[in-house]
Amino acid sequence: MNIKANKYKKQITFIIIAIVTFITLYATYFERHLIINKNISVPLEATGQDVLRIVQFSDTHLGKYFSLEQFKKVVEKINEQSPDLVVFTGDLFDVMSEYENPDAVIKALSKIEAKIGKIAIMGNRDFQKGEEYFVLSMNQAGFKVLRNESIKFSYKDHNIMVYGVNNWDIGLEQKELLDGIDSNNINLLLMHEPDVMNKFEKYPIDIAFAGHSHGGQVYLPFIGPIIKTNMCEDYLKGSYRLNNEKNTLFYVSSGIGNTKVPFRFFNIPEIILFDVTM
Fold first, then answer.
1. Is the pLDDT of residue 275 over 70?
2. Among 1-5, 111-115, 254-258, which stretch is predicted with the lowest mean pLDDT?
3. Cα–chain-centroid distance for residue 122?
4. Which ranges carry the Calcineurin-like phosphoesterase domain (predicted)?
5. C-alpha–C-alpha distance, residues 152 and 14, integer Å
6. What is the pTM of this model?
7. Beta strand extents in the chain (DSSP E only)
8. Contact 38/273 with Cβ under 8 angstroms?
9. Is residue 135 helix, strand or coil?
10. Which of 112, 145, 150 is nearest to 127 (CA)?
């Protein structure tokens, strides 16, 4: 009886070790090297004839765990979507001061194509060498950086307003950002930290975009993320609908790169295409 029991325990132990080994290898060497395209339809008008294509990408964290060659593939996939508007929701480098060739990243960014514009906001990592350094770099790549400000586009007789939140603790300027917002426009809001949405949920925003959370980076089925970072308590990953005037679609990207550890599990790097019918 003891012999059978010991044999059974050894089998269970072997299976557990095999599963843990497989998950570790998969999370380290496979999943984080993938990239998926998500396509989300957003019908703002049921009988609308015009479609605005928006691509969001976020949290590339170029550095130790995400290479320039991987990023170039992301650029290719973005361009394959033929976007009208591209939005980046922060954290370009993992440790900006340690990156050896930032100019090569800017060159790759400049190859992203968008018919009406490329917009970015700053993530917490983007402040490492100062705001002006990041803004200048993104400008060189053709991106407009919004720092508690907005920009207006005209697209097929529609007015599109894009609002960008600089960071979660800016204060008064941030609170006044959406004063005077016109609900007749197509209103888009960009932020880095998802829980910032709690400050703006009452406003007539059509679509809001965030990143920062990495979806927990390691996400266990039925359990959830191993670690939640700050400002991701209420919104972690994926689509949310807010109970407000426009029933705002809020999307929190799981991002593309990695930080701190080279693991991703149940959080495949993603770019997101929004087909907005107006």
1. yes
2. 1-5
3. 12
4. 52-215
5. 60
6. 0.93
7. 36-43, 51-57, 85-88, 117-120, 144-145, 149-155, 158-164, 186-190, 207-210, 219-220, 224-225, 238-241, 249-252, 270-277
8. yes
9. helix
10. 145
**Distance (Å, whole) CA 160 – CA 184:** 10
The structural domains of the chain, ordered by start, are 34-277 (3.60.21.10)
Angle at 33 between CA 225 and CA 167, to 5 degrees: 55
Q: Contact at 8 Å (CB) between 59 and 212?
A: yes
Mean pLDDT of the 266-276 span? 97
Structure tokens given for 61:
């964290």
Answer for the pair 19, 127: CB distance below 8 angstroms, yes or no. Answer: no
Beta bridge partners of 187: 161
Place of tokens 């130790």: 64
How far is it, in rounded angstroms, from Cα 21 to Cα 39? 33
pLDDT tens track for 77-121 = 999 999 999 999 999 999 998 999 999 999 999 999 999 999 999
Q: Which residues make Cβ contacts (< 8 Å) with residue 170, sequence separation at least 6?
A: 148
Q: How far apart are CA 156 and CA 278, in angstroms?
A: 10
